[in-house]
Automatic annotation (TrEMBL):
The gene is purD. This is Phosphoribosylamine--glycine ligase. Keywords: ATP-binding, Ligase, Nucleotide-binding, Purine biosynthesis. Belongs to the GARS family. It holds the Pfam family GARS_A.
Amino acid sequence: MKIVIVGSGGREYSIGLALSSESKVSKIYFYPGNGATCEIGENLDCKNDDEFVSFVIDNDISLVIVGPESPLVDGLADRLRENNILVFGPSKNAARLEASKAFMKEFAKRHNIPTARFLRTSSYDDGCNFIDSLQEPIVVKADGLCAGKGVIIAQSKDEAKSALKDMLDGSSFGDSGRLVVIEEFLDGFELSVFAMCDGEGYIVLPAAQDHKRLLNNDKGPNTGGMGAYAPSPLASSDIIKKVEQNIIIPTLNGMKNEGNPFSGALFCGIMVVNGEPYLLEFNVRFGDPECEVLMPLFESGLLDCFLGCAKGDVRSVKYALREGVCVGVVLASKDYPYKSSKETEISIAKNDNKNTFISFAGVRNDNGKLLASGGRVLVCVGYGQDVLSARNNAYNLVEKIEFSGKQYRNDIAYQAL
Ligand code: AMP
Ligand code: GLY
């Protein structure tokens, strides 16, 4: 069968790489893909979504997997489904779980899903009153999508009020900040828990931990993620059971009962406080770089999981996960995350270690030469029986890849060692 993966990052590359070894997959297209996805399949150069939808209809495509949130929030999955195409990814309405933090928080409240105490408001005065009722630090969030930058953790009430003012008047995040969520700070450890969902049924994948800060020891600015590993030993079976019972099941039931069944990857950003999981955020897609460490953990059945979600019968799918751990180390360009960097050539030394994988992201193919084209360039993934061996494999791969300005963290998976 022919499939299409929508997106251009390391997440989409890793899905493509994992599916390329499935015997049922005859061809993988990427829309738009990157400078390395064209080695696994074919990049589509459709000018816009209209052209893309026509391509899918005319070319006997059996499944479309949508990687990033923005096409989902724009309704791409709905348009494909209206044309009877199987899609992995939620509808525009269901994607509000990520697109609007206010929607997500109100939804959690309606369905008794544990989350930080909050106020949603567009009023500066109401916001200040609520801030005065909280202990520092105080979390102020812009309602809409802000490319991962819309959350301010304020150390004082004055800082929280000034962040609130800048959001409400549009100066920090434009229209995305004219509605805000102010919430209490939860102190614990974070987990990323992913469920592959079909509107009602779901399967839970091993819990991952992301590393959002740029520098070692969780210092420096927030990024899209500088590394990840899974499964995390911090995610006990008790915690995962609580995430399922208290968060995933009520969310799927609530979305269905409200007329917007959720299918696709439900990414639960969790803070565990004294053994209790609280929902920080939902994303309606796989995390990046979490996806890059989850895909290689599938031993079999990955395609069927995607298809089961798209068809509505994921509960009956047979799949197997490998024992062991994957660690992924992001190699970013010199000026990430501040500004774009000059393109530089990537060189990759010979590598016969079967327990390593590269997921390419910010790369461009210049007549066969692979260039680092900015942002997060690629992810070095190592697999091993335990965290230490997976991590050694990942960092051995890091040593084999060079480009000018390469920056990465040395401490990925430190939480598990
Ligand atoms: P979000 O996009 O809502 O996940 O927020 C981004 C990051 O901000 C999270 O990954 C947490 O590290 C942090 N964060 C968000 N909300 C809270 C909260 N209520 N308490 C503590 N940290 C938070
Ligand atoms: N790594 C976090 C995210 O994809 O949002």
